[in-house]
Structures are given as C-alpha cells and as structure tokens.
Design a protein that fits this description.
This protein has eight helices and no strands. It is mostly helical. It has one domain. Helix 3 runs parallel beside helix 7 and helix 4 crosses helix 7. The longest helix is centred in the N-terminal third of the chain and has 33 residues.
Length: 244
C-alpha cells in the first residue's frame, strides 16, 4: 500500500508541474474537460466525503457533551463551512487585486502580497490532500483510487484558476510550491497519525474548500461554462461511487 500511495502522491505532484502543458483547457467557452473534472470533484464530496462527515459528527457530539464546545451542535459541518468561506475570501481578494492592477495599468494579475497569501493557503490545502492520501476513514485500495482520481481532477481545476489569477508568477514559483506541498503533506502522513476526531475535521475543511473551488470556476458568466459536461461528470462519478 505504501508503494502505491507514494506513486499516487508523485502523480498529484506532477499535476501541478505539468498541467500548464494542457493548453486546450485554457479556452472560452470553458473547456468541457474542466467542467467534467469539476463535476467529478463535487460528486466525490457529496457521495463519499459528506457521509463520512456524518460519522465524524458523532465523534464531535461525544466531545461536545462534556467539552468546551458542547454548545455547538454541528461542529464538523461548521468546519466545512469555514473551508468554503476561507477560500471564497481568497478568491474575492485575488479578483479585487487583479481589478486594481488593471486600473493602475500594471497588468491583469494579482499583487505580490495577494499572490503569496493565495499560494500559502493553497499550499496548506495541498499538504492536507497529501496527508489524506495515507489517512482516510476507509483504508482500502479502492477508496484510495477513488480519492486520487477525484482529487487529481480537482487539482487540474485549481491549477487552471490559479494560473489565471497569477500568470507568470504562478508558473515561475507557485506551481513548484504547490507541488512540493503535496509531497510534504504525504511525508508528514508517513511519520504521524492523528485521531479519528481530527481526521474528520480535516476532511470537513477539505470538503468545503473543494465545493467552493469548483463552483467559483463554473458559475461566473464570463466562463461560459458547459453545464452538460459538469452534470455528466457529476452523474457518472456519483453512479460509480454508489455502485462500488
């Protein structure tokens, strides 16, 4: 299993390093392949991750009955909401930075400060993904492959969005940092193992981040996204997960 997870971790690293070579993805109307990838990612969240979160919620309730968080009823879902809200804030910050730079005649890209904040946040996000390659609720080869396929496509979507915001800075530095972050998370996973409660929290945060990072790419009108491709990806992968 460790050999397989190492191989898959290397695969996720390569996605950020070489996704820029997939020139056909950077088109308007939005590439049908990116919409399919987004649909697959969202299907994985709703069919696989959210049911696991309901199990994690029971762990939180047991802690909440006697701990300092006993007044909160939906801890794990609040973490998912936090993941969504944080990445929404980062997206708005990047868009506003691009608008300011355009008005000032400095080009259609973000400022240095926004670039580093965005990359640092996604580095943590990617390290979490690398860690979860090794530590998930369901420790089977099938679960691992489902996770890798959905997350791999999700990283292609993220890569495309980050390159649009940061242009040359992303290709020069950002993609290398995010690639390394996946492997750092994987290495941390090799030497540490957290409790089920913390694992549920990490999965919850990741779920919220995935939902926002997919929908922010699909919903804006200027993307001219392809609903049929998104729906096809979501439906096909959902059917596969349910049948497995």
């Amino acid at each position: 299993m460790n050999f397989l997870t190492t191989l898959l971790a290397a695969g996720l690293v390569c996605i950020h390093l070489f996704a820029s070579q997939l020139r056909f993805l950077n088109t308007v109307p939005r590439s049908r392949w990116l919409s399919i990838a987004g649909g697959v990612s969202v299907a994985y969240v709703f069919i696989h991750i959210l049911p696991e979160l309901s199990e994690g919620q029971e762990e939180f309730k047991q802690i909440g009955e006697t701990g300092i968080i006993r007044y909160l009823e939906h801890h794990v879902y609040l973490l998912a909401l936090a993941g969504l809200a944080i990445f929404y804030g980062l997206e708005r910050m990047a868009k506003l930075s691009r608008e300011r730079n355009l008005k000032a005649g400095r080009g259609d890209s973000t400022s240095a400060g926004v670039f580093w904040l965005h990359i640092a946040s996604f580095a943590v996000y990617n390290a979490l993904i690398g860690y979860l390659l090794l530590h998930r609720e369901e420790q089977t080869v099938q679960s691992l492959l489902f996770f890798f396929f959905a997350i791999g496509l999700h990283l292609v979507v993220n890569d495309n969005g980050l390159r649009e915001h940061h242009k040359r800075d992303y290709d020069r530095l950002g993609r290398w940092i995010l690639s390394a972050a996946v492997f750092v998370g994987f290495l941390i996973g090799l030497v540490t193992e957290i409790q089920a409660l913390a694992l549920a929290a990490l999965f919850a945060f990741l779920a919220g981040g995935i939902i926002l990072n997919v929908l922010k790419e699909e919903l804006p009108e200027e993307r001219e996204s392809r609903f049929w491709a998104f729906a096809l990806g979501a439906a096909a992968y959902a059917a596969l997960l349910v049948a497995a």
